[in-house]
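Researcher: I'd like a structural prediction for the single chain below. Treat it as a standalone chain; there are no partners to consider.
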Amino acid sequence: MEIETIRDKLWLWCHHEGSHNSREGIQGISTITPYEAVSYLNLQNLLMVRYMDQPSPPFDAHAAKFKDLKNVVWSTVGAGGKSYDKERKHVYELASKFQNITGLIMDDFFKTNATGDDIGVLSVEDLKKERTRLKIPGRTLNLWVVLYDFQLNLPVKSYLELCDTITFWTWEAKNLVNINDNFRSLEDLAPNQQKVLGCYMWDYGQKRPMSVADMEMQCELGLEWLQQGRIDGMIFLASCICDLDIEAVEWTKNWIAKVGNQNIH
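Model: Treating it as a single chain, here is the predicted structure.
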């Protein structure tokens, strides 16, 4: 049995190049592509998530660029909770063509100002139908979902039970002080799902740089949880800031180089 390394469990969250230019308080013009960014950080797993309706389907040419990567997860619900029946159908077909597409992710899935049956972009019943589509020729895809720290008290349990992997994000860096308690709440809420820790390399919640101290805290805590088996991976966000000489990005690149080849005990 092959021994897994830390690098095997690390992911890059990717958007189309330039997605965050002049947004979220970010200065400078980024031109780096998702594949260039994942190569820059020396990672082998990525999530490709549509942002502001980019890239436009069909996605075959984009997926072909990732053919040498170990794992690719593609969005069926894009940034901002955008979901289209035609696009979801296309992504299932895409996964049938590319063996390294191992899962599908629903970004911004929960509506924080809603209650009851409309808390999700898709209803519970629609999500059950989506699960039947995860079985494609020769394999079954994993269904991923995004959950933010401020959504833990929403009625999300019935939705999470229909997902395989929960990616957990602390939206504002100032709330990272609560991450241990919040993550325990998630473990209680969804004990049977895999969990992946989302690590922002920019403080999007407050539209300012992520401090190196906060970046280090996220990474070292994630490393500890990986070794303990509490999480199944870590995601760094986002590809479209990796060429802007941002301190937290460069620190993360060096951290990955330092720990990436360590074995998972």
